[in-house]
Amino acid sequence: MNMHATPGVIAPTPPKTLKDTGLTIVMMRDILLKTIFRKNLEHVSEMSEAICLALPLTQQLVEIAREQRLIEAQGTLHAGSGSEMAFQLSDAGKSRALDALSQSEYYGPLPVPLELYKEQVQNQSVKNIQITKDRLMGSMGHLILPDDMLNNLGPAVSSGRSILLYGPPGNGKSAISNGIRDALGDMIYIPHCIEYAGQVVTMFDPIVHTKIDEEQQATSSLRRTDNRFDKRYIMCERPTVMTGGELMLSMLDLNYNSVSRTYQASLQLKSTGGVFIVDDLGRQEEPPQALINRWIVPMEAGYDILALQSGEKFEVPFDTLVVFSTNFHPNKLFDSAALRRIFYKIKIDGPTQEEFLKVFAMVAKKKKMPLDEDALIYMLKTKYPTIDNVYANYHANFLVDQILSICDYEGIPNQMTPELVERAWANMYVKDEEIVH
Alpha-carbon distance 282 to 105, whole Å? Predict the structure, then answer.
């Protein structure tokens, strides 16, 4: 994957003062106390790393808590401390930490206030990416796609608007969705968590976000001098959320954990700056029209509305390329108003017989299976008429792999015969029959 960012991505500047964090002193102090308590920390350097705040600023927070008699110095005279002063929570500090934990279990990296996060989203918007034809070809080179298909897809991806891929199954809609993700190919900054109205919402999710390691950061064009950026963020690849039949409307809302009294970002908030792929639209429990309706306002307005437990609603940025993919005809899924709002509708069709043969020959050559004229004629004249001569992009790979597996198993040289085609075909389509119980 191309790890060089689009020139427009600006790293979030590290706060120079406690005020620059955008958080209240009380909130920062309480997160510090909870983190010391939960992680059993003694040294300011460990605290600085745990709450993702620069050492001098962490030192200032510790001093504030000391003045309030919540933290006390232990001296430096015990083994293994180096020359660093050790600290511990006083009794008052422990009881304040427990009190704060009873309100919210959240501890660790300081959150980024929602307003500051909105600025960062603008700096790294998915709409800022200019995707060239070469870049799209590079990420989809392994797929056999007609030229006009890429010509339609390019402007759609570059616009950062919603895309609907539709057409018969087995022609690579899911693979194309993944290719779109790979074409984005740069890095952005994801906050560990964000803060709104004193509530913390955790954002970073290792399932959705791929962290960039130190080595890649060093070679990235995103680097600032000496690699400094606000450590409340993590440098990641542009995120991809891929959902299928399991997608529920509730996944698009904040997830509140009543035991820890903490919020987890919604799936689409986690996909900010990247791609949200809804695969197999029409197979979810929710009707497709309801799913699309949930997206219409965010897609048009550029923001989404989420709600806290208290019922208070607030706006979060919606900066996501939404790709819907379905085997159904769009007219069967949506009314015309919804269809009008999906900006790009691209049909992904199966190949013609001529295109299929070209692909079959390429796959056979690549996998070292010699072609056989009799076997090809048998396949085209005897087998394909049984499925109304409908060719799909996955057929060539499937049939060649099946034939090679049989040759392998029987210890015969790679070859193609009508009998082998018949056996491979039996695994591609199951015979329609009643099973007697």
Answer: 39
Read off the pLDDT of residues 84-96 as tens digits, 9 standing for 90 and up.
899 999 999 999 9
- Which tokens belong to 254? 């904040």
Q: What pLDDT score does 83 carry?
A: 76
Euclidean distance between CA atoms 104 and 198, whole angstroms? 10
- What's the pLDDT at 2? 38
Gap between the Cα atoms of 62 and 56, Å rounded: 10
Q: How far is CA 114 from the centre of its chain?
A: 20
State the pLDDT at residue 312.
95
Quote the pLDDT of residue 212. Answer: 87
Q: How far apart are CA 201 and CA 93, in angstroms?
A: 25
**C-alpha distances out from residue 235 to 66, 78, 123, 129, 157, Å:** 33, 37, 14, 17, 23
Taking only Cα atoms into account, the Rg of the chain, rounded to an integer number of angstroms, comes to 28
Distance CA 215, CA 234 (A): 14
What is this structure's pTM?
0.82
Percentages (nearest 5) of helix, strand, coil residues in the chain? 45, 15, 40
Where are the alpha helices (H) located in 40-185, listed in sequence order? 44-51, 55-67, 91-103, 114-123, 133-140, 147-159, 173-184
CA torsion, ordered 134, 140, 145, 149, to nearest 10 deg: -60
Residue 177: the pLDDT is 78
Q: Dmax of the chain from CA atoms?
A: 90
Q: Which residue positions in the chain have pLDDT lower than 70? A: 1-8, 76-82, 141-142, 144-147, 214-227, 430-435, 437
Measured distance CA(239)–CA(262) in Å, rounded: 23
Cα–Cα separations (whole angstroms), residue 91 to 12, 39, 380: 37, 17, 82
CA–CA gap between residue 24 and residue 78 (Å, rounded): 34
Are 321 and 180 a contacting pair, CB within 8 Å? Answer: yes
| pLDDT at site 262 | 93
Alpha-carbon span 12 to 123, nearest angstrom: 9
Query: Do 110 and 232 touch, CB atoms closer than 8 A?
Result: yes
- Cα separation, 418 vs 374, in Å, equals 7
